[in-house]
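Look over this one:
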Amino acid sequence: MPAKFKPPAAAPVRTPSPWSVACAAALHPGHDFYLMARCLPSLMAGDNDQPPKGGRQKKFFDKGKKEKAMDLYTLLTATRGLQILQKNSWPALTLNIAENGCQMTMTGKISPEGLVSLLPQLAERGHLAKGAVTGLELLCGKNSVEATIWAQASGRTVNVNVSLNGVPQEQNLCQDYLKLALQDDLWVLCSDLWRDAEKILLQTGARYDGAHIFERESQNFIVAAEALSELPPTVKPGEMLLQAWLAEILQHGSEVLAICLVVYRDYGMLRISEFCMPEVCVIRPNSPVRHWLNREHVSTLTGLARSNIALEKQIYASF
């Protein structure tokens, strides 16, 4: 049975901009276009006659591939967590960050040397009495005390558990005091990380859930940009680049995005072509699209669209 199509709604009158006209002219030279940039919710993902939901899109890879694509939010949040731990003189812990931003976990062990070096910092931050530092340093060093750490943040709830190994039975009061100090300090650090993680999640594309980053609309086609959750396969960021991206997000309020450019046919919202940009875009607040979007990528996208349209014409011509 042939598919039934719902007639598209009448398009509103739109004011053209120079960059928008250039985008549309690449698809259909010689036509008059009424375009404008929009940030509206796109339709939910369906079959080929429906566009995927806008916002952070998950790209699916062949099952045979062993290397998993890196999630941008997870990578930046883990880096931020290590920054916070290092800044507060904590040793590096293992961070497990959920890709959807719903939960994060810290686990690990602290050696006797790590505990001894951490004690003065706990006192500076008010979690230990300064007069107790020397005695606790002797206790940890003499008995080779180790700490096992587990902390989890989910929503606004932070749970922390610390266990100490090696403390003599007669020193239970000292053990409880040190354990409470470690838990209090770690609770503050987890709360700080969760607050920053919420901002990182928004600035890496979650704010576009249900919407495109931008749209340029012609009479029959829409050129749009979608935020991807995963880094481009060719991007392997080092420590300096990750820290630079974090500075852009946390200090300048910039967006750090992996982007896929898409062409839709307006009638039926058919996805004609797509092109995943090979670089990560840093978008400062109120920055025009032309400042961060490489026009060569748009030319590549429209070239793919024209090729696919020509192929469809050949297929339909035999019907």
